[in-house]
Amino acid sequence: MEKLLSEFSVGLFFWQSLLFIALVFLLRRFAWKPILNAVNQREEKIHEALELADKTKAEMKMLQAQNENLLKEARAERDSMIKDAKETASKMVGDAKNKAKEEADKVLTNAQLAIAAEKNAALTELKTQVASMALEIAEKIVRDELSAGDKQKKMASQLAEEISLN
To answer: Is residue 9 assigned to a domain?
Structure first.
């Protein structure tokens, strides 16, 4: 340390101090202000980016809530449409069953009417044929009975008596 103190020069100290002060002044004028401005601008940009991130996060939450609401509405609408479709299908099936039953009843009624008409026609024809056959048989019996003259006279007198009694 003695060596340092003995070699100490006031002129050198003066020039070094002057150069140091000039360097500090130049750095302050040309380096510190731009560096501080750049740091401040970067700090502002970071602050703005954080605010934008917060806003975006809030918007994302809002959009997510809207999407959930839309999804709920879509599910409700889908369930409603499915319910309506099932009701329509069951109504159509019921209507088709009722219409088929009505048609079957009409066909059955028409068939019963046709059967009754055919039955009546057959009975009428049968009666006509039976009556015709009965007349033929009666005619044959009467011819055989009345072939003799006595029997004709006897029969005529009987018929005359019956007519006069009525």
So the answer is: no
Number of domains in the chain: 1
What is the H or E stretch that residue 161 is in? helix 149-165
For residue 147, the 8-state DSSP code is T
* pLDDT higher than threshold 90 for residue 15: yes
Residue whose tokens read 């409700």: 76
pLDDT digits (tens, 9 = 90+) for 38-47: 899 999 999 9
The answer to the question of residue 1 being in a domain is no
DSSP code string of 68-121: HHHHHHHHHHHHHHHHHHHHHHHHHHHHHHHHHHHHHHHHHHHHHHHHHHHHHH
- CA–CA dist 8, 10 (Å, integer): 7
Per the structure, the complete domain to which residue 92 belongs is given by 15-165
In a domain, 7, yes or no: no
155 touches 146 (CB < 8 A): yes
Q: State CA 159 to chain mean position distance.
A: 89
Residue type at 7? E
Q: Residue 63 and residue 69: Cα distance in Å, rounded?
A: 10
